[in-house]
Amino acid sequence: MSIIKLLDDFTSEKLTNKATSRREMFSTLSSFGKKAAAAAVPFGLATSGKARAATAAFFQDNSAVSALQLALTLEYLEAEFYIKALDSGVIPGGSRAEKVYMQISKHETAHVDFLKAGLEGAGATPVSKPTFDFTANGAFDPFNENGIGQDTAYAQLLALAQAFEDTGVRAYKGQAGNLMNTPFLEPALQIHSVEARHASEIRRIRGLEGWITLNNRGAGMPEATQAVYDGEENVMQGGVDVTSLNFADPIIGDVSEAVSQAFDEPITAETATAIAGLFIVSDD
Fold first, then answer.
1. 79 within 8 A of 108, measured Cβ to Cβ
2. What is the pTM of this model?
3. d(Cα 57, Cα 182) in Å, to the nearest integer?
4. CA distance 77 to 82
5. What is the pLDDT at residue 250?
C-alpha cells in the first residue's frame, strides 16, 4: 500500500460531507494510524533479502536517518497544529476552511504514523514529539487563547498554516538528495507532493495565488515568516539563467517573476530546523 493509496481512502468528498463532524473525524485516526503503519511495510518491515539489503544501505548513511527525523519533526508540528486549530473554535463552522483543515489534519497524522513506522521498521528510534508553542513565545495567538480577537486569530491561523506548509514543501525537496538510493525516497516524494497540494489550498483560502512569486511571502503574512520564502527568487536552474531563455511574455509581472513561479526552491535542514524551532519549547 503506498501513501497515496492510503490518502485516497480519505478523499475530500468523504471529508467534506456535512455529516462528518470533528468527533467522527478524530475517531477514525486510530484505525488510520494502523493503516499508515501497514503502508510502511514495503520499505521498512519486509523481510526479503532485497529489503534487508536496502535497510543495511540506509544505515550506512546517517544523512538519510537525519532527513527522515527532520521530516518527522515537521510532521509532528503540522499534525498538532491542525488538531489544535480544529479544536480552537476559531475556524468558522461549516466553512471551506474547516473542511480543508479536517482533510489536511488526517493527512498530517498519517504522515507522522507512516514515518514513525518506517523508521522503526528500519531499526531507528523515531525522534520524540517536541513540545510546541504556536504563539512563538507570545508573537502569535492563532487559537485566540489570549483574547486577541476571533478575526485576528483566524488570520494568524491561516498565515501560520501557509508558512508551515510552504516550509514542509521546501524541506522535503531539500532532503531528497539524502534519501537517494534508499527505499525511503519514493514515499518521501509522495508525501512532498501532498504537502504541495496543502500549501496551494491554504494559499487559495487566503485569497492568494497557488504559487510563490519571487521571495514574496504574500499579503498578510507576518514578517517573522520571511525565512520560509528567502531564496525563492532564484532564477538559476542547472547553471542556466532561465530568464535569458526564449520565455513567452508573462501575463502578469516581468519575466523574473514568471520564471520564479515556475521553479520552487529547496531549503536546507538548518533553515527548516530554525523555522520549526520558533515554535518548539526549549528544554533549557
1. yes
2. 0.79
3. 7
4. 9
5. 62
